[in-house]
Batch of 2 targets.
Target 1
Amino acid sequence: MSIRIGTIGSGKIVEQFLTAVKNCQGVEYGVAYSRTEERAREFAEKMGAPASCHDLEGLVHSDLADCIYVASPNSLHFQQAKAALEAGKHVIVEKPAVSNLGEWKILEETARRNGVFLMEAVRHVYDPAMDAIRRGMGEIGTVRRASLRYCQYSSRYDKFRRGVVENAFNPELSNGALMDIGVYCVRMMGELFGYPEALLAHGIFLKNGVDGAGSILGIYPGMDVELSYSKIADGKIGCEIQGEDGTLVFSGVARPGNVALFRRGGEREVLWEEEDGWNLEYEIRTFAGWMERGDLRAADYRRALEMSGLEMKILDAARRQMGIVFPADGKGNQRVWHMI
């Protein structure tokens, strides 16, 4: 079975995704979409797509795309993914999948109704390092604290400091540090510990009202989880999960990297060593496996949908505390966001 991919977007993440596609047997690039004909054609030639288009309807009905990968600005994800799902295309949508939980519920229902698969591309979820982390958690006794960090100075922040606001720092596009980077921390917390019984969130805001950094404290019975994320400063400390009998240490959340277990007695055990290259291949291979099996009720697929919903629920709760409101939150069909 050969799966043909159509893409929406022409940024760096799309190039990295398509590089990963080349390393995935049975998956190939079919058609490139961009808002202008010239940009679509240039990107198709650069990345090796046999066709291009600048009309969304043409893309979602193209015979050269079985699956659409959506990597446009965050605020466009919902409408573009929904159009693809309604056209009977499978969809991989970059994180954050949508602006709020209400939009995610609509996408889930649209995918179910049309008998197609939907994935949020949160790459660490499908990285084997996550399995190593879960195994390690079984070796460190009762977990008391986790510190999950992703602080990376954005290449676009230099322009912002000079007064040029690009998409990454435009809150009107459902952007900001929480949605662009903090989402990785939120998803890992949800994957490992579920929804917290209480949550405290604080954001650091820039002059145009966008959040440039922030912290979230997830409170669980007998433990807490600290999330730290930033687009305006670099972090040099990795992540750790502290248990009564040992501590797990790993490089980060988007790319967990090497995972090591330190037992209370002082012994160190390497549970996972990072392989070369990006870890995008794992999500693509997982999605291809779902399509090949064709089972929309499969437990691993259903869990992935559930975890994306939980992630959006946490993001919505954190945004309410920080006062972050997007244009998408005011739509009539997004009343769910205000009710949670």
Target 2
Amino acid sequence: MGASSPEGYGGYYAWGETEEKSDYDWDTYLYKENGGVHIGDEISGTQYDVARVKWGAPWRMPTLKEMQELRENCSRLWAQQNGINGIRVTGPNGNSVFLPAAGNRWDEHLGSDGSFGYYWSGALGSGSEYNAYGLYFYSNGWGLVLRRRQPLQRS
């Protein structure tokens, strides 16, 4: 969202939020428990999906199943594109996409950019209101992980 090139970092968004903000923490998260709103266990394609809101249909965040297929059926290679670190993910058909290592936002700070990437899925973690699934990577590995929804990442 918001990148002007394939290797650009673009915007940083909390899970289920569709606007960027200057301060990313639990207190500024719109859907926190104890006074927040439960927006669903799968937000892909809904009004809480930043890709759908910013780009319109048919764009949407990936589902957990799609993230699992990406991890299990595609190869990945730590790479640079125009001087930006990230991974090149290549599918069985030979098509590929570059995901920049855009780091993460916490409070008003950007951290781990150039060495770490995290991309939200639309799936809330099973049995937990606090976590959502996403694809993470760094130079030596990648996988799917549950992550607290308030460390706000690029979607």
